[in-house]
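If you are new to this repository, start here. Below is one unmodified record pulled from the training split, so you can see the exact layout before writing a loader.
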Amino acid sequence: MQQLSPVHFGYMDSVQVSRRLLRAVVYISVSKPSVCHWLVIFLEKILWCFIFIILHIQISQVAFNNPDFNFNQESFVSSAMSTVPGVLNIQAYSDRIENEEREMLVKYISVLEDKNHKKEIWWQTNKNNNGTKFDSKNLKSNLKRNNVFIKKLKQFSSEQLETALKDINNLNLSKYLSEIIEALIHCKLKVSDISAAVKVSSELHLIYSDFASDYLEYWKKYLDLYENSPVFNRHKYKVDLILFCELIISGIFHNKESLDILYNTLCSLVRADLTAHKNIDIIFNFCKYCGEDFVGAVPRNIRILSNKYNIEVPSGRLISPNFQVKVKNLLKEYYDSLSLSLKHTFEIISTLEKRYNDHLLEKGDVHPDKLKQLESFKKEFAALNYYTDKISDLVDFTKPLLKKTACENLCSDIQGMTREQLIFEVWGDEATEKFYNELPNVEEYLLLTSKDSDPDFELNVYQQVTEETLNEEISADEFVTEVFNQDEEEWNDKADKDEDKATAQLHVFLNNLSSCLNQYMIDTCAIEFLITYDSKQARNKLVEYFYALPRTRYDLFPFICRFLAIVNQVHPDIAKKIADKYYKQFRYLIVKKDQIRLENKIKNVKIISELLKFKLFSSIYGLFCLKLLLNDFSHHHIEMACVFLENCGKYLYFSPENHFRTKSYLEQMLVRKNNVILDLKYKNMIDSIYHLIIPMKEVNVSPSVRKARPVVHEFIRHVIYTKLDQDTLVLAQDLIEKLNWNDVKTERYIIKCLSNPNNIKFDKINIMAKLVQSLSEEYEEQMIQVVDNVLEDIRLGLEVMDKAMSQRRIAMVAYLGELYIHCDLVEKDTIITTLYSIITHLVDLEPADDLSRVVLVLTLLDTCCNYFPHSVLQKELRYFIIYFQNYFLYKSQRWDTQSSRFPILLLQQRYEETIHKLYPNMKLFHCLDESMSAVQKIFLDISQKYNLNLGKMNCLISNHIQDSPCEAISNNVEHTEEGDALAEAYDQLVSNSMKRRADVSVNSHLKDITIPVIKKPQNEMETQFFMLIRKANHKPMLKEISVPSDSEIVTTFKSSQKSWEDEMYHVKQITLRYNKRIQQESE
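And here is the target side for that same chain:
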């Protein structure tokens, strides 16, 4: 036995090694319980074999060294293999499974046969012995006991079965059958009470011959459901339906009428519930408890085993197969509708998930109401899926296949990165990643893992809140009034007052932390604090020290937070208190909104960001702090947001749970930078932070998608938008004219391209106008459509007034001016009408500080003001300039009330230059009152000139002046009293004009005819004939006279006619030479 001691120790070492390996495997795979279970079983079998192999080798060595040792190798191996638990034997395992399946199938068949046999006996008994046990002599007629019995039946349960049967056999209840039946039907039974209720009914059926017929009539009335009528008491109805089926199976209701009642009831339940599926629990209970008898259903697992082992499962013989087929078809119809509803709900869930994922991708979060809607659909789907699985297993229906649509991976840009790439993007190098994620194990240095922690502290307090909860806290938050500016001097002054020696040593220790600027030193200090200074008072001092860190020691913050993370392993309440303090300080600084203590604010967000990277501060709270800064994005809040994102922006951006919300906040910050007038310093800070966090490959990830167009359309765009300039104008005209204008699509696309000057450079708009003029000589109708499209686009731009279309509107207005200059299709009236429409059309709907209409008017005047006729400049345009000055001064006055006058000052110089270019001597108005008086004077002049009602006109003008100057010159289309007065004045003007026109007689001014009519002679020697006009009796008369050809009047007339023809010929030659020279210069 002494020689066997090494074997004993070897065996024990092997067991210990195996157990340690098993524990390691369990620890590694603890996150996946299913994998862990099978892995442990497999490794346990292998390790037991390994143990016995080692044991066998060691025993063999002992036997070799000691010849007297008797060892039977075969007996040892066989005994070992028999005693090792779970040695793999595939054939034995399969045989064991097969035997278990056979035993289960045989047991099910035996139970089913026994059940069917009992039902048949019960059926025959109730069918053949109706009323045979009635004996009036042995039954007592006691009114009091009969009433007590009926009351008991109203609250019947299986526990009262023996008492009820005893009372039935002793009492004469022939006169109380209706009350008994009513009590049995309205009694609230459980599924476990059904067999007892059937026995009571069977006993009554055997004694009283009229019981079954009366009972069936009551059931017929109770189970009868009107069309589309709901089931009010669903729980009772599903139990009563099972009870009625058991009464049929027991033989109490053995006629065909009972089966018809059951089928009609099932039809009412099914046909009225093919969409809502509110009766699904009733149908499920029917399949569960009555499916074997009335449907002939066999559970799916039993049917598979019977087919596998070729063993037939017996079926009940009490219900006819035809009725079972009818009921099964009815259930199949309901199951199909249930499958469709299941698929439809699944598709809705998939669609909503994809939609909300896309919303999460764009916005960073999803509204809670939408998430609640999705959860309600998921609950509905879970219920439908549960009942679908159960019914398909019970009745052996085919389960529907649900094809889940491929959902895009929301974090594909993060999950596609390797660990090295992720470390480089987030931390920069592996050493920084280890600094924040790898902490020393404190358990190796301490005997206890926790000392004096707060018992009421919750570790996951930050993870139990959502951003919606934080939003609700804003309105109800009572911010502290103390100023959070405790600094290092106050900490030192407070420490000097402490006279305790231990406290003084702790103070020295904490002050020395400011010199720990590497990982080894800060880890050593943290462990020293836990070993030496770990007490409740010391932890409170530590919290105060952390809160009083120097404001400008930014290099110290990461190491102090690492110190806190190490201590957090033992005392998590310290990190919680410090995080709460800095979070409350942040909220106070946000609400205070002062422009002082910038260093305190920067310190606050830097420490919060460092705590967040050490997972001591919740990311939900961190992103909420960033959201509060974006809500009031100005001054110090911009610097705080940039510092926060500079420290932990990459950490949040590359974490899957915070990726899209961080990206959304970055985009919001970029939008606010573009929409708000900020200093150049702030703009550069925002751009730097944005491109620091988001890699450049993600900024331009979406390449421009080129629209597929026909070749002819691409050629038209190339000619007009790309190659058109002053040198290629004639060539472009020839190429466009050679296209197939008879093709409707080609013609429309040419018109479309010529109607979009915003697709070319601004300095080439005049060349496009020249191209339209050249094409109008041959295609005038098409070029008129181009002009109409330009005018319609200007009108649409005035109605929409979208800031994104501002450049398009300016290009369209400039294009209209160029068309007026180079093309005869645009007249001066069109330009004047457009100018008025720019400052009047829907002007009441534009923002008060919007100056886009001023820019449009100045652009159109700068383009074509030098080409207006003198008459237009003297009269029509002068009126418009007065109106335009009124509009401009109104806008300028509105900008005076705001903090910035930069946009209005930018247009002031251009406004003055444009008006002085048109009217050098015009005096500009300097205030709104002057312009309004000028507008009023114009109205009065017009009213006097056209004899309008001055009283009504003055009232109309004064009302408009009181409202706004824009409304004074706008066309108000609404039916108001002023509008009716203006319309009445206009009608009066038109009627007076028509009356004066009717009084004027239209006479031919024959006295203006000075040139006589001459007829050409037949030859030169003949006389010439003239028509002489004379007046007789106040009527003109013509008389033909003949004049010799050599007379002076004929000679003078011919010479003047010849000189006129020579002059016209000379002008024609000059024009031809000029055109030829221009053509040669262009070539």
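Two things worth knowing about this chain: The first helix runs from residue 5 to 28. The radius of gyration is 51 Å.
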